Amino acid sequence: MITVKHLFLSILLITNLTCKKMNNPDFKIFGDKELLKDCKINLKLGFQKYKDGKYDDIYLYKTILNKGEIKEFPYEDYDYIDIYVSKNDSLVSVLRFENIMRNANDYINHLYLKKEHNLIKILYVGRESGIKNEQGIHKILIPLEDFYKQENIKKNEEKEITKKLFFNNY
User: Is the pLDDT of residue 93 over 50?
Assistant: First the structure.
């Protein structure tokens, strides 16, 4: 016979195992060391917190790669992310996505930087099963001025905010 105590302990165990599985894995960065020395990667992690009857967006900014130095940091679950990538403060790109991989059994946070045919590519892979076939989000780094045009950023104050997201240390 299952008692209330056994039922409670079973639910507690299942909840504990489920929550541990949903922790975000650290970001791992891969690429040629010489290329990584010229690059910076900043994260803008977005969280939604419920307060006073509404959801507020809260952002955490972190530099995880600067001049070849990879930095780790503890963080909790995030809802969405912008990954700002720059090379020599001139070529840039942003990967933007919701954190939908967090519920996958093989959830990872891998970033790959590579140079191919005079282009610098960034690849985010969110599942172990995507590593082999490079399944993930791909972008090519482009000149900053081209990025402004692509994103329709025209005002000087918006350009300054964007530059900070790419080039500042957090």
Answer: yes
